[in-house]
Design brief:
By secondary structure, the chain is an all-alpha fold. The chain is 63% helix and 0% strand. The radius of gyration is 13 Å and the shape is globular.
């Protein structure tokens, strides 16, 4: 994800593990279609989608340090 800071682009692929986390985070569902997630993120953030999701990930893991996020713990298994 570090490369996201060097260029702006739309999202072309959602990995299955990302799909699970985005589904819970944005739609409060266990699983949401990856194509729909990709399309929604690209529509919302346009050419800055890759950069935006980088900040979303950073925020999510900072939140995890401050509070217990049960659904996230099950997904990341760290």
């Amino acid at each position: 994800m570090g490369s996201a800071f060097h260029y702006h682009s739309s999202i072309t692929h959602i990995a299955p593990w990302e799909q699970k986390i985005y589904s819970r985070l944005f739609y409060n569902r266990a699983m949401f279609p990856a194509t729909r997630i990709r399309n929604d993120l690209n529509r919302l953030y346009q050419q800055y989608a890759t950069l935006a999701v980088t900040y979303i990930w950073e925020d999510l893991f900072r939140r995890r340090r401050r509070e217990h996020v049960p659904w996230l713990e099950k997904e990341i298994r760290l």
